[in-house]
Amino acid sequence: MNTRLLIVVLTLAAVIISALGVVYTRHQSRQLDVQLGELENQRDDVIAEWSRLQLEQAWLGDAGNIESAARDHLGMGTPANIRILVVQP
Amino acid sequence: MSKEIQNAAPIGRLYGFLLVFLLCSVALIARAVNLQVTETEFLQGQGEARFMRELEVPTRRGNIVDRSGEPLAVSTPVDSVWVNPGEFLEAPENIAPLAAVLKSDAEEMERHLNQRSGKGFVWLRRRLHPDVAAAIEALDLPGVYLQKEYRRFYPAGEVAAHIIGFTNIDDVGQEGLELTYNDWLQGKPGLMRVIKDRLGRTVEHSEVLREAEHGHDLNLTIDRRLQYLAYRELKQTVLKHGASSGSVVLLDIATGEILAMVNQPSYNPNQPSSDSEGLRNRAVTDVFEPGSVMKTFSIAAALEAGIVTPTTPIDTTPGTITVSGHTISDHQNYGLIDVTGIITKSSNVGATKLALQMEPEQLWSVYDRFGFGEVTGSGFPGESAGVLRNYRHWRRVEQATLSYGYGVSVTVLQLAEAFAAIADEGRLRRPSLVQGANNPAVSIMDPKYAHEVAAMLETVTGERGTGKAARVGNYRVSGKTGTSRKASAAGYASRYVATFAGFAPSTNPRLVAIVTINDPSAGEYYGGLVAAPLFSTVMGGALRLLNIAPDNYTQVVAQSAVPASTPIGDIDGGAD
User: Which of A22, B375, B410, B525 has the fewest CB atoms nearer than 10 Å to its CB?
Assistant: First the structure.
């Protein structure tokens, strides 16, 4: 009789604990889901930022811009062949 | 009334009720079975439809980058503005501020929206400037929404426009590699099932129905620096000679990779217009009769056929020859020259004499093996195969004109492929635009003959050659000039195509460059005067940028012996 009561009580307790566990994990999963969404947004923002930076770098590194800066502002130019001495290895 | 009857009535009623209850429960069970088993799928679906939503997971279009990873096409998110006309038009006073921010006409906008008042979604303006998008967000008008979209940017602009192409407003490739590799770049949008609440917020991600496949990057063989160099020089040359168009192709001989491919006129892929003149990638879509450049291959055929050696004398006196009533003439009477001289001087008479000694099939076979008359397989949309008629249909005069490049049509890319094969000891490689392409070399000619032809080509930039202007300081250069008249409805017009095809350094060829200029109209029109100087600057710059060692030290010594005080520019190595 005692053992049967014990079993019932234990099972009841186990059921309650597992029920609470389900509630808890469910809650946690929702929270993680929200967090995942935030992180995904963050990732997308960072990727967008990266693409903008790539574009900016490409524009700054554009050969035409560099060339005009070198020629017009810094007074640089390609040396004439006569000024180039090629050293034979 | 007897007792029996009194008793019989309740029992009858009892059975009656029992039957009714039994029928009721049978009906209930039947219904339950019906709902739980037979119609469960339909009902569950209907239930889920109330809160389950299928959400598309957007993908980003892959970037296109050059051989060193420099971006040539990049997608970046921008905002587009759309309105729900019914909701928005409830407050007509909101139209004016929105129109002001978008810099459009308020009345026009009202009319536009009124016509579409029955719809729930109308694009107002797509791909806004970030500042405009911020201003609209700040207005916070009811019924006006911003939607994130990707916009494609092309930092190289017109310089690489023909190769890359562009996409339309829905991010689908329209031209160039954007079109060819659209599926690869685009990826596949994923599909996800989510649970949404009454207000449309996502409460739970239920399951992923289809994993999103993001767009892949595309690595090209193009070198952005060389592309820019070739484009700048081509543009200058086209302007200087009043030409209508032009192309330059630069090829790596060892791998068949296209390092630069530029055309004039060009367009800005960031704001493509419908002007079709600038859209064509002429280097692969347009064919032309190459003229004397083809002598390279007709002489190769003569050597292969065994009828001559490079030193066999050929008498070209008196500078003209008549074939089937047609007179073929040289620029001047070159007299007695050898086979090498035909290339050096570009003698039509000499080439004709050799061609007429050959079987038509021998000449055709060499042209065919070098890839003329078939597409190169570079994967570019609209690539032309050119025209090379089968030798069975050749007339005698055709056989003669084919030897100096008339009656056959080629693309600039085909010429590049063929010249690379001459430079690489008779090994032909399909040119490629995308890295990792599998293009094994196919041996199409005995290396001995390829060597002999390459040696002849070097004389073209020599003292007595037609292509002196193609020289590059400190390097030995081989090549061939070409000047051809354009065919028109009324025979050959006095419009020209100036060509130079060549490779360098001659001792160990690394790069092939083909230059064509269409309709030079500022006086000069010879390939040696119009195209060769452009070849020299592009090839010279490319050799320097790619750190290819010079192979012409004698010239270096001679030059460094000149006092440094000599005015610069007089002896500028490239063009003379």
Answer: A22
Q: B26-30, B91-95, B408-412: which has the minimum mean pLDDT? A: B91-95
Indicate if the pLDDT at residue B574 is higher than 90: no
Interface membership of B548 toward A (CB under 8 Å): no
B205-259 pLDDT tens trace: 677 788 888 889 999 999 999 999 999 999 999 999 999 999 999 999 999 999 9
Say whether B292 is catalytic.
Answer: yes
Q: B175 near B166, Cβ under 8 Å?
A: yes
On chain A, the residues whose CB falls within 8 A of the CB of B75 are: 51
Determine contact: A37 vs chain B, CB below 8 A: yes
Of B89, B88, B86, B75, the C-alpha closest to B154 is B75
Which CATH number is associated with domain B56-91+108-219? Answer: 3.90.1310.10
Mean pLDDT of chain B: 86
> Residues near B431 by Cβ (< 8 Å), separated by ≥ 6?
B251, B256, B257, B258, B376, B378, B413, B416, B417, B420, B439
Report CB contact under 8 Å: B76, A61. no
B173 three-state secondary structure: strand
Phi and psi at residue B548, to the nearest 5°: -90, 130
Q: What pLDDT, in 10s, does the model give residues A32-43?
A: 888 988 998 898
Count of C-beta atoms within a 10 Å radius of residue B486: 14
Chain A residue numbers with beta carbons less than 8 Å from the beta carbon of B203 are 30
**CB-CB contact of B327 with B379 (8 Å):** no
Q: C-alpha distances in angstroms, B107 versus B43, B81, B92, B102, B314?
A: 50, 18, 11, 13, 82
Considering only the beta carbons, identify the residue of B60, B155, B232 that sits closest to A59.
B155
Domains B56-91+108-219 and B224-266+275-305+335-560 share a fold: no
CATH (residue range B224-266+275-305+335-560): 3.40.710.10
The answer, for B562 touching chain A at a CB cutoff of 8 Å, is yes
Spell out which residues of chain A touch residue B542, defining contact as CB-CB under 8 Å.
none
In a domain, A80, yes or no: no
ipTM of this predicted structure: 0.77
What total number of domains does chain A contain?
1
Q: Which two tokens stand for residue B510?
A: 């690394």
**Extents of the domains making up chain B:** 56-91+108-219, 224-266+275-305+335-560
* Cβ pair B481, B460 in contact under 8 A: yes
The residue range of the domain holding A26 is 2-74
A48:B568 CB<8 A:
no
Tokens encoding B352: 């004709």
> B69 CB near a chain A CB, below 8 Å?
no
Radius of gyration of chain B from Cα atoms? 37
Q: Average pLDDT over chain A, rounded to whole?
A: 88
Of B74, B205, B569, the CB nearest to A55: B74
Is B349 part of the contact surface with chain A (CB cutoff 8 Å)? no
